[in-house]
Amino acid sequence: MTETASSSARGSRAKGTKGAKGGLRIERIHTTPGVHPYDEVNWELRDVVMTNWRDGSVNFEQRGVEFPDFWSVNAVNIVTSKYFRGAVGTPQRETGLKQLIDRIVKTYTKAGEDYGYFASPADAEIFEHELTYALLHQIFSFNSPVWFNVGTPQPQQVSACFILSVDDSMESILDWYKEEGMIFKGGSGAGLNLSRIRSSKELLSSGGNASGPVSFMRGADASAGTIKSGGATRRAAKMVVLDVDHPDVEDFIETKVKEEEKIRALRDAGFDMDLGGDDITSVQYQNANNSVRVNDEFMTAVENGTSFGLRARMTGEVIEQVDAKALFRKMAEAAWACADPGIQYDGVINHWHTCPESGRITASNPCSEYMHLDNTSCNLASLNLMKFLDDDGKGDQSFDAERFAKVVELVITAMDISICFADFPTQKIGENTRAYRQLGIGYANLGALLMATGHAYDSDGGRTLAASITSLMTGTAYRRSAELAAIVGPYDGYARNATAHKRVMKQHADANAAAPRTDDLDNAIWAAATEAWQDVLRLGEKNGFRNSQASVLAPTGTIGLAMSCDTTGVEPDLALVKFKKLVGGGSMQIVNGTVPQALRRLGYQEEQIEAIVAHIAEHGNVIDAPGLKTEHYEVFDCAMGERSISPMGHVRMMAAIQPWISGAISKTVNMPESATVEEIEEIYFEAWKMGVKALAIYRDNCKVGQPLSAKKKEEEKAEVTEKTEETIRAAVEKVIEYRPVRKRLPKGRPGITTSFTVGGAEGYMTANSYPDDGLGEVFLKMSKQGSTLAGMMDAFSIAVSVGLQYGVPLETYVSKFTNMRFEPAGMTDDADVRMAQSIVDYIFRRLALDFLPFETRSALGIHTAEERQRHLETGSYEPLEEEIDTESLAQSAPLAAVTAAPQAQPAPVPAPKTAHSSAELVEMQLGVSADAPLCFSCGTKMQRAGSCYICEGCGSTSGCS
What we know:
The chain is α/β, with parallel strands linked by helices. Among the domains are: 165-356, Alpha-Beta Barrel (Anaerobic Ribonucleotide-triphosphate Reductase Large Chain), CATH 3.20.70; 749-900, no CATH class. The strands form eight sheets. Strands 3, 4, 5, 6, 7, 10, 11, 14, 17 and 18 form a ten-stranded mixed β-sheet that branches. It has a four-stranded antiparallel β-sheet with strand order 21-20-19-24. Strands 1-2 form a two-stranded antiparallel sheet. The model is unreliable at 1-20, 229-234, 704-721, 731-737 and 881-912 (pLDDT under 50). Residues 1-24 are annotated as: Disordered.
């Protein structure tokens, strides 16, 4: 943070104490007078040792950390490794949860006292104890930057979400690069709208053509790819938005489609295009999520099949008319091909904007849940909904709306206090955030709550329950905001925007009054929400509001795991079976604890519940479960599996809760690989009709498949290449006649036998070499003798072996056969080759590692696990001079040579199948592919959390914190 920004921040803080009127009376919720929350739980010491299970390397180790005995192993591991401050092994290192919570809570309490929030020291003490209790018992969590920074000597940044701005000047564009880089350096993400930059179809003042925003995206993308996020190996998190009426919108839509074509072409040519590979940096626009901001005029034109005008940025005049439906189709085709761009609906976003007099909402943060003014930030906190479900264990349930509202009041108070002492990455962001005080309270575990209460995720009852909780949360948050305004004053920009702000509050209240009610579970929540919104209108008219925004629904990745939530954000459950780590090491597969709760709620007896749970444990789903009524199947529908929730079911849930979210909802609508462009068009169109603010789609495997529009180009390119090769071959044959000579192997030959597993398929490979001149034959053993697969492997082995003996270089085979993609594919049991796109891909990567010199295979992008680790540590794959074994550099020196006569191959022994995360467990049990990357830190399969990915093993995320 610059000195100027720091000075500005200090000046803003000084104003926080002015106008205090008595202070808040804080009510006890969970705590007991005279008893500290720490004294009410049992504490124990745990050893946290986190490894990369693929190569056994230790990623993190800290022994003897103190946690409550009810905290799960995963939660302990993630909080210790992610949030404890101080270097491991030094006296400054935090050693227990008490230190971590005290560091944060005491900072908040002191700031609350300093800035006049509390009526008395006794109220401050109650606030401290209640906040401690709620964090200790995983009732809610602040966003990650709070855990990282609050109470430490470093700048106390509390926000995870940032929105920047850029104008049509080179100075502003260069400022954009700098500001974005500083945010990435701190581990957070940012978004912005590029629509103010004039298009490539407009002129500069000097008379030449402008470059256009798409060209400037290249520079920002390169910067993000270099800085990455917080210095980690994952990509930086950023969002780039362009308005649909910008003349360069078609170029913007097609940026990633073209780059995906390039990725496939380079991969097929032998370049290392895997995530994190050496050559992926040559591909552009990969460090951002792209979204098109559509307005109601455009969507109406799509609906009516009329034309739509693209407008010059400098004059606002229409410079080109396009077919609205055709442009909408291009967006859907691009999303079908590579998942980008997403879509943001400008009309509904600004219809719910509380501060339109201060500027329009033009952009969002990278995950699309925070939407407000440019150059602002938002700090987040999320409540664990399952903590408010009262269940007697016999099927009688209720949601404790009263306690939920009290916790919302506590958390909102703490979040507002944080703005008083927080630091920000730029002066503009600091000034605007203090002037508008945007907050983002939200929740996690919605999917688990709906299932536990017997509601299908895609059902009227499920949507109504979710809507009632959301309305109560936001209504209570704004009520507390109005109460705070009476004590420490409304936000600085309120006077200018008072009419609009009160209009939006009335819209929320009207939506609450008109919402449908379904059963006894949600009726009580609606009643509490109605009372809250009535108070909002009354108190807001009298006091104004302390905060211009109150709620968002974030992905809750890392913090969701820290709270031991079964589901993140607004997402449904991943599957009915879970991967659970055990204290003292080991793991086990369990059926979700929400399943028995749901069955009791639906009226099943204990004997029936046992039988159904046993069926799920064996099959991973409820289909044909003994005694389970077919009409109850939908209650157990999940994100993956045979009964997965339909894409439109996700959209309907977003639409049901959007009227009571100040910002938006971070969610990606997953679609099967078979989904069509027309189905994507339908989702984008219906989401607009339903009042959703923004969404993105992801079609399974779209990142590795070619878009339809590229097929013809590839066929033409292949035809030209084939003709060129024939011409060269004919010319050479006229000059010299060449006939290869076969060089057979001797009777006794050195060889290596390797057992392998690829995607659950086991096999053996024997590679025999010449005593002095490299690989000479390969034998592959898979499946039973006489089977089609075994016959094809034998034939393939003979063909490759004969080619080797006729002088075909091994590197030629490696370059041709690696990266071939077909089933079986997936994880292997080889530490050097973690993932294989097919058996053939694995075989030739293994042969390259065993028989090719370092320089040759390195040029092909094939490295051992040790070499990849060395590259992470030193930036080079090459071994140190003292590590070089000159004898092993020769092709003729296999790693483990044996001289023996050919003998019968042993029967394959099935490799043990183990899972290391819930996503991997689902893949094994249901036979489906979880389309998600592997975690760079620990190697486990990640899973979706909103529009990001989260690693269940170590808590790492692929998006903003």
